[in-house]
Amino acid sequence: MARPILYIGNKNYSSWSMRPWLALKWGGIAFDEKIIPLGGEGYGRSQIKEVREVSPSGRVPALHVGALVIYESLAICEWAAEQAPSLWPSDALVRADARAAASEMHAGFAAVREAMSCNIRRRLESEPHWSADVRADLQQLFQLWERVLGRYGGPFLFGQRSIADAMYAPVCTRLRTYHVTIPKFAQTYCDVVFADATFQEWERAGEAETWAIEQSEALYR
Q: What is the pLDDT of residues 103-152, one digit of tens each?
């Protein structure tokens, strides 16, 4: 069988693409990547022609494994963990806790994701005024991180690097981009993510991209 192909969006903007890309890399799973620049006609409505051609949802990432298309971030991460079990904690209860945290990121924090679009290369000079919903999301995020870092001892959320960290890595970049005031333990965790060599590989590629999505660049201009 040919190597899996991971179709992703712009590395500067596509937080959902970053998550399974990190998991596949951390798991040592060989794959090819193909970037589909986002933006333009159909963007925001899952109607970009080039994406529809490779993903039935009209969204990236999408992993092609033989004739099968896995077109959802957490599902790709779970497939990766079946090839590389070390992507989840070995203890069943800790693994369940890590899955709950990853699923919470996948399904929640909508206000943060809407207000802080992913833009790795951007840095605001001051923190914007956040809505009550965004502040509530941030409080929930920091409570989660404080709980698991305290319980499992760090430096990653569940001790060793896992899919949970892949799910939250883009959040760390958002906190940095938007100059968010964060607790010391959260900054320490983000610094661990930023120091990861695989994350840095993605970050360098995102910073080197030359195209821009105007909707994202206009936010808090």
A: 999 999 999 999 999 999 999 999 999 999 999 999 999 999 999 999 99
Contact 184, 146 (CB under 8 A): no
Q: What does the DSSP assignment read for 133-166?
A: HHHHHHHHHHHHHHHHHHHH--SBTTBS--HHHH
Residue 218: φ, ψ to 5°: -75, -20
56 within domain boundaries = yes
Mean pLDDT taken over the chain: 94
- Looking at the fold, whether 108 and 187 belong to one and the same domain comes out as yes
Structure tokens, 11: 């590395």
pTM for the model: 0.94
Cα separation, 37 vs 186, whole angstroms: 32
Q: Map residue 104 onto helix, strand or coil.
A: helix
